[in-house]
Write the structure tokens for this entry.
Amino acid sequence: MRVLVTGVAGFIGYSLATQLLARGDTVIGIDIVNDYYDVRLKEARLARLVDQGGDRFRFHRIDFADYPALTAALADEKFERIIHLGAQAGVRYSIENPHAYVTANLVGHLNLLEVGRHRGAEHMVYASSSSVYGGNTKLPFSVEDRVDHPMSLYAATKKADELMSETYAHLYRLPLTGLRFFTVYGPWGRPDMMMWLFTKAITEGKPIQVFNHGDMYRDFTFIDDIIAGVIASLDNPPPDDGAVKAGGSVKPHRLYNIGNHKSEHLLKVIDILEAELGRKAERIMMDMQPGDVRQSFADIDAIAGDLGYRPTTSIDVGVPKFVEWYRAYNGG
């Protein structure tokens, strides 16, 4: 299979491309490689994909929010399916730089829908986020829940992506699957996320900021479990049969949560990090940050029932794997 992957230099995009190449697929990768976080990490991921994929990995360093540049780069490329993972990430950064989110997450998503439509893609899988659940208090979060109260612009853009996708599934019968990811972590992860930030600070003997005074819960999902769900989704396009799909659409459009189906206390994760790193963290207790939510918890019944998705990695296994990789990557 030939698969177009946006955000291929990112954490999930790189990890996905690695698995697609390993099973023999061809990957056409797109990424602007911006400096939202350390570009050296993104370049290291790309170098590994080049080494692994050879002529089955082709990379275009472009901004997918630039439609003329995108279509020009893809003019001579052949692909059957699309996985659109590229986005401006980060809840907190969306408060500081809102225009970046409109450009990447709204214009960019529309551009990929247009590519899928005009190129006759068999299926487009795209990244949504657990952030769309916003201020919902019913737990666990289900794809059947209303998601009308986002608490950050990032969350609002992801909800908008889902709505645009529903329109394209209706107008053009483009098969689409939106994936609401829950707190992804693991080897080759993002330096702006809690797991990396805390590991780095504890390693260096620096304090960590613990928000909401530690009263925080997250559905931490190991990268291998995320990728298993993405590939299962990619390989199973939603049928255009008029039946109600996960998320409520009767068009060829499904929505799935991909999480670990466990809401873990933040302090438990810190305890595991301390044990693995062999030192106690200096914890600075902070108030809740704007745009953040107290708890996330994924109901995965829809993707489990449709695709047999079963996460297998608990934080007791996954966190030590991340720490092992972090030390190796940083020469520790």
Notes: The domain at 2-188+220-260+297-304 is CATH 3.40.50.720 (Rossmann fold). The CA atoms of residues 134 and 149 lie 6 Å apart. The two ends are 39 Å apart (CA to CA).
